C-alpha cells in the first residue's frame, strides 16, 4: 500500500508542477504577443483601420490595436540587435500586458514625435543605458547619397525599462511609438498588422478563420497556436513522456504487490487446500486473492491521491518552508526567471493517475490468484 501510495502521490505532484510551469510560460509568452494577428501579404497592412473596425465587431474579440514589428540595430556604449515594436500607447493595453511589466516609466511616456523608446531590462544592460540615456536605432533600410548607401538611423531617448521574465523578450525587444516607427522605417501610414485579444485564447484558430472569411482577400491571419504552437506542443509532449516515465514507479509497486501475493499464496497452501476440500471452487479461490490485491490497490491509491492533492495544492507554501529549514534557496531569483515552484492541480490528471494505479493493481493480482486457484489439495496436505 505504501509503495502504491508513494507512486501515485509522486506522479500527481510532478504533473501539477509541470502544469504550473506550462501555464506560467503561457502567461508570460502571451502577455507579450496577441492571440491573433491580421497582416498584409507583403508584410505591410495598408487598410488597417478597416481591419481594426471589422475585428472589433466580433463578440469574441475584446481588444484590437495596430502595431509595427521589425528588426533593427541599437547602439549606445555597446551594440545589439533587437526586435522593434511600434505601438499606440492608448490602445496597446487592450492587447498586451507590456505596460504592466514596466519596472521604470509608463507606456504613456511614449509621445508621438519625441522619439522615445522603452527597452527590455537585459537589452538595456547589454547596451549599458538607463533612463534618459540616448540610443541610436539603425533601421534595415538605406538612403542613397553621393557618398553611397547610408543606413537610416535616429537617436532615441530611453524612457522606460520592462521585465517580462522571458529572456527572449527581455534581451531583444524595444518598444516605441507607432508614428515614430513609421517615420524611422519609412512606412508612411501603413502598419505591420493589427493585434487581437480574445475572450478565450483557445478559440483563436476558429476566430481567425471566421475573420479571414469576413475580411476577404488581401489579408493573412495568424493565431498564437501558429506563432508559438511548437513551444507549447513540446511542453505537452514532455508532460506526456514524464507521465509515462513516472508510471514506472507504479509498475515497481505493482511488482511488489505481485511478490507479496505470491508469498501469501505459498504460506496459505494448506488453508487453500482445506477450503478446496470443503467445496470451494478454483474460481472462488481466485476471487479471494484478486479481492485482496484489488483492495490493497484501492487503499494505496486513495492514500496516494489524498497526499498528492494536499501537497500539490500547498506546494508554494511547502517549498519555502523546506528552504527555510535547510537554509538554501532552490530557485534564486537572480538565476531563474521563475523563482518559485508553480503548481496547478488538474483533476483530469488525478483521475487518470488513480485509474492507472487501480488497473495496475488489478492486473498484478491475476498471476498470484491463478497460482492459488491451481493448488491441488492432496499435494498441499501431504505433509500436514
Explain what this protein looks like in three dimensions.
This protein has two domains: 2-24 and 233-380, no CATH class; 34-227, no CATH class. With 384 residues, it is an alpha+beta fold. The two termini are 32 Å apart. The model has no long low-confidence stretch (mean pLDDT 83). Helix content is 52%, strand content 21%. It has helices at 2-30, 48-56, 89-92, 121-127, 167-170, 178-184, 204-215, 224-227, 229-267, 269-277, 282-326, 347-364, 366-373, 377-380; strands at residues 36-40, 61-75, 79-87, 102-104, 116-120, 134-145, 148-162, 173-177, 193-198, 219-223. It has a six-stranded mixed beta barrel. Helix 9 packs parallel to helix 12. It is built from 14 helices and ten strands.
Amino acid at each position: 500500500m505504501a509503495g502504491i501510495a508513494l507512486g501515485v502521490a509522486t506522479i500527481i505532484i510532478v504533473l501539477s508542477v509541470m502544469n504550473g510551469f506550462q501555464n506560467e510560460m503561457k502567461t508570460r509568452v502571451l502577455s507579450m504577443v496577441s492571440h491573433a494577428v491580421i497582416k498584409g501579404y507583403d508584410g505591410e497592412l495598408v487598410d488597417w483601420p478597416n481591419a481594426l473596425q471589422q475585428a472589433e465587431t466580433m463578440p469574441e474579440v475584446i481588444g484590437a490595436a495596430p502595431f509595427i514589428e521589425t528588426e533593427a540595430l541599437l547602439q549606445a556604449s555597446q551594440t545589439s540587435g533587437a526586435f522593434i515594436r511600434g505601438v499606440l500607447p492608448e490602445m496597446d493595453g487592450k492587447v498586451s500586458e507590456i505596460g504592466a511589466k514596466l519596472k521604470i516609466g509608463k507606456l504613456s511616456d511614449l509621445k508621438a514625435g519625441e522619439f522615445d523608446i522603452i527597452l527590455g531590462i537585459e537589452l538595456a544592460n547589454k547596451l549599458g543605458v538607463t533612463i534618459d540615456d540616448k540610443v541610436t536605432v539603425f533601421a534595415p533600410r538605406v538612403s542613397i547619397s553621393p557618398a553611397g548607401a547610408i543606413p537610416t538611423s535616429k537617436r532615441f531617448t530611453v524612457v522606460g525599462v520592462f521585465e517580462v521574465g522571458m529572456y527572449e523578450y527581455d534581451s531583444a525587444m524595444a518598444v516605441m511609438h507607432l508614428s515614430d516607427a513609421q517615420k524611422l522605417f519609412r512606412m508612411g501610414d501603413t502598419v505591420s498588422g493589427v493585434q487581437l485579444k480574445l475572450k478565450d485564447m483557445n478559440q483563436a484558430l476558429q476566430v481567425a478563420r471566421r475573420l479571414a472569411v469576413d475580411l476577404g482577400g488581401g489579408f493573412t491571419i495568424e493565431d498564437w497556436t501558429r506563432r508559438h504552437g511548437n513551444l507549447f506542443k513540446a511542453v505537452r509532449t514532455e508532460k506526456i513522456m514524464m507521465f509515462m516515465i513516472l508510471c514506472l514507479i507504479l509498475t515497481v509497486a505493482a511488482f511488489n504487490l505481485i511478490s507479496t501475493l505470491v508469498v501469501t499464496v505459498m504460506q496459505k497452501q494448506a488453508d487453500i487446500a482445506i477450503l478446496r476440500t470443503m467445496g470451494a471452487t478454483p474460481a472462488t479461490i481466485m476471487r479471494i486473492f484478486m479481492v485482496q490485491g484489488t483492495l490493497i490497490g484501492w487503499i494505496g491509491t486513495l492514500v496516494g491521491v489524498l497526499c498528492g492533492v494536499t501537497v500539490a495544492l500547498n506546494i508554494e507554501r511547502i517549498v519555502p518552508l523546506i528552504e527555510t529549514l535547510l537554509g538554501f534557496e532552490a530557485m534564486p531569483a537572480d538565476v531563474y526567471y521563475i523563482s518559485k515552484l508553480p503548481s496547478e492541480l488538474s483533476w483530469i490528471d488525478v483521475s487518470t493517475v488513480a485509474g492507472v494505479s487501480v488497473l495496475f493493481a488489478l492486473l498484478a493480482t491475476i498471476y498470484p490468484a491463478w497460482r492459488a486457484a491451481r493448488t491441488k489439495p492432496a499435494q498441499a496436505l501431504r505433509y500436514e
